[in-house]
Amino acid sequence: MSKGKLISAIVALLVIVLGAAYYWYVVESHVPEDPQFSLNIETLREKANAVSGEKPTAIAVEHVGSLEFPGAAVISGGEWSMREMAVYSYKIIFPGGHIVVDTAAEPSQAKEAGATAVNMDSYGRMMAAMDSADHIVITHEHMDHIGGLAAAADGERFRRQMTLTEEQLAFPAYRDPAQFKEGALEGYEPLAYEGTYALAPGVVLIKAPGHTPGSQMIFVQLQNGSEYLMIGDIAWHFDSVTTMKARPRFVSYNFLNEDRDMVHWELAELKRLHEEEPGIIMMAGHDRALVEGYVEEGKLRAGF
């Protein structure tokens, strides 16, 4: 073989190897067989009625800040152009109280992590809502969901309202760089449950590990019958649900330490539920277009 042909063969082999690696780590995404996760809407509706009292009347949302990631990091096979990752906090409003869901990141930590925007007014309203909340619940233990709570919890502050699960406290590394102050969790007894848990009238927690060990979804049924499903970061953007495509392997394994199979099974169940029950309002973790669409349609209230 001539030198020129040898070089051409080596280049062709490298192209094949690099192409295969790119496909495997950036593009490929499929739902594995033998699913280990299921959602039963009738069970959720039954649990939503298991706690006596008045159900919520509305859900409000605060857009506390934003990050930007390449689309190829948000969903397998995505484009490399940047996609916004809006950071939200939610307030489930009852006639006599409220529940705060997710607490964003502490502003200085958010900026260090590369936040493209931090809304201090929204952050302040969120903190005030946390002070008077009946419960503070997080969908999972990453800094942009637990950071506000971790930074502010001190002594007795938020001790009564914190409704954190065993799994959300068991693996502190998932919270980095957000960590609770020394002594803030001393003597705290986290919530332990299997499957689902009726937290309040119309509000049900759903254990959904995969993105993190402590990931959970929140099902909400309002007094008017409207139903919501906060899916946290099982999907950063809702197109992961409709396509059943998870984050690419290079993100799942190198940065997030996810159980990617479980995330795929959860995405498949969410897509099935979305198709069978299109009236359920699903909120993906960081999808600004989705959330703002719900606000425009009157399904979410803007601001606490």
Structure description:
- By secondary structure, the chain is an alpha/beta fold.
- It has one domain: Ribonuclease Z/Hydroxyacylglutathione hydrolase-like (Metallo-beta-lactamase, Chain A), CATH 3.60.15.
- It is built from eleven helices and eleven strands.
- It has helices spanning 3-27, 41-48, 71-74, 107-112, 120-131, 143-152, 166-170, 239-243, 249-256, 260-276, 288-296, and strands at residues 58-70, 82-94, 97-101, 117-118, 135-137, 196-200, 203-207, 216-221, 227-230, 281-283, 301-302.
- Strands 1, 2, 3, 4, 5 and 11 form a six-stranded mixed β-sheet that branches.
- It is globular.
- The relative contact order is 0.17.
Would you kindly provide a brief summary of this structure?
Helices cover 36% and strands 20% of the residues. The protein has eleven helices and eleven strands. The chain starts with a helix and ends with a strand.
* Unreliable segments of 5+ consecutive residues: none
Give the terminus-to-terminus CA distance: 73 Å
- CATH topology type: Metallo-beta-lactamase, Chain A
Taken together, the total number of domains comes to 1
Give the count of helical stretches. 11
Strand content: 15-25%
CATH superfamily: Ribonuclease Z/Hydroxyacylglutathione hydrolase-like
Average of pLDDT? 95
Record keyword descriptors for this entry.
single chain; 304 residues; alpha/beta; Metallo-beta-lactamase, Chain A; six-stranded mixed β-sheet; five-stranded mixed β-sheet; 11 helices; globular
